[in-house]
Amino acid sequence: MSNDKHLVVVVPCSGIGKPFGTVAREAAYELCENLRTGDTQLVALAKLVLGDSAAREIVAQNPVVTIDGCKHMCAAKMVRESGGTVAREVAVLDAFRQHKELKPEGIAELNEAGQKLARLMAEEIAGTLAETAKSGMARGGSHD
Ligand code: SF4
Questions:
Q1: Model pTM score
Q2: What's the per-residue H, E or C state across the chain?
């Protein structure tokens, strides 16, 4: 896996209890489990917080897309603290600003608007994944 130059790691914030954080997670699942199963790898933020060595290694060796639910940008910060290269920082708030009609609500279960926003985000990230991987490689520099 570590020799696959096109693998992009996706780290959503944990955002439990906040609709925007839930959108971040749903977008990451849609991207990694439905749209781009072959060239993405989801890593849970909790694993990085706990210092899980396998999670830290994969984050350190591949470009990372972070998806954060608010301005605290927990996923982006944690990836950097774990030695990773953030190739792209995605913020749910930015996506919402572009799709004001899709206001996410609900926590355990997102409303339809929130689910749609998550899908749109996943599609947009999927569409630019190749460029993201390249820019991450250029910035990270030292993978091989
Ligand atoms: S970025 Fe915001 S919503 Fe996400 S885990 Fe951090 S504080 Fe929570």
A1: 0.92
A2: CCCCCCCEEEEECCCCCCHHHHHHHHHHHHHHHHHCCCCEEECCHHHHHCCCHHHHHHHHHCEEEEEECCCCCHHHHHHHHCCCEEEEEEEHHHHHHHCCCCCCCCCCCCCHHHHHHHHHHHHHHHHCHHHHHHHHHHHHCCCC
